[in-house]
Amino acid sequence: LSGASGLAAPQPGLPVLFLHGVGRLPAYLSLVLQMVAGQHPIIAVEFKGVSLRLGKVMTADEVAAAVVGMLDELGVPRVCVMAHSYGTFIASLLVRHHPERLASLYLLDPVCIGMFMPYLLTNFLYHRLEWKGWSKAALLDMSKVAVRKLAANDLHLCATFSRRFYWTELNMWPEDLPPGSVVLLSGKDDLMDSGAVRGMLERAGHVQVIYKPELTHGAFLLVPEVKAAIMGQLKQLVASSGSAVAGLGHGLGSLLLSCAYISAGSSHSMTAGHGSRTGPAAAPGWRQLPALASVASGFLGRCKEG
Predict the structure, then answer these.
(1) Which strands form 182-186's sheet, in the order they lie side by side?
(2) How far apart are CA 41 and CA 36, in angstroms?
(3) 143-195 confidence digits (pLDDT tens)
(4) How many helices (H) and strands (E) does the chain have?
(5) Which segments of the chain does DSSP mark as H helices, in order?
(6) What whole-number distance in Å separates Cα of residue 30 and Cα of residue 225?
(7) Other Cβ atoms closer than 10 A to 278
(8) Are 16 and 43 in contact (CB under 8 A)?
(9) pTM for the whole thing?
């Protein structure tokens, strides 16, 4: 990693793997810094395909394989996965194909649950602008739809969600969630039917559901009290499943935003065994991560700059 500095002595603690939603990773900077302040080793991955950036568009399978390859290169056997929106698709693949790498799971606005419902497809890809008057609420609603439409029509986002994006295989059912998982739902989420998802999760019985009826999709980032509650729950998850990780130290040695890292080591591969779906036999690994960017806390000494 460019700009690498020294490595702090290894300390007990489970790394948090943060997987963001549509938009740039800096939008989550305040949350990431709160994790760092809480003395959590952080591994955050930026997905170019959904970050309004130029570059190769990777499929969800390729991204998941690259993330696993990155963990292998860093020598991290298990992580606490925290994922928001699009990141929950990647978390779903990790749960399905690499359950041994997850010590715990925290999902924020999980669009990966209940994908068979029409809300996500309709509201993100096909929702049309409708004039509803000059009231403040109507103008605010129309501005949200306009911003979402602008993002959804980005070339890379269109390719991400409309090419080789297998909706049925990315869906996560409540019984797929590891016991003790935490799920935050926003009551006014306009991308998913949070009420129906809440009912599904509560009937499953092994998932902790946090329901915020006043929030919209991603609005937890704007409410300090909610972010503080998220950090408290995350701390409990890490404490309940944490372990010492060799080579990972606490403290923010360097904060690298949008800085790609290519390993000089061997690439990681994953066989794509997904029923009748066609695809490459081996998905790209950490070597092919110029399509991803990493932000890391503490693991800098383990890496070699490509």
Answers:
(1) 208-212, 182-186, 102-108, 79-84, 16-19, 42-47, 292-296
(2) 7
(3) 776 666 766 677 777 777 777 777 778 899 999 999 999 999 999 988 888 99
(4) 9, 9
(5) 29-37, 60-74, 86-97, 119-120, 136-152, 155-162, 167-170, 194-204, 224-241
(6) 13
(7) 7
(8) yes
(9) 0.72
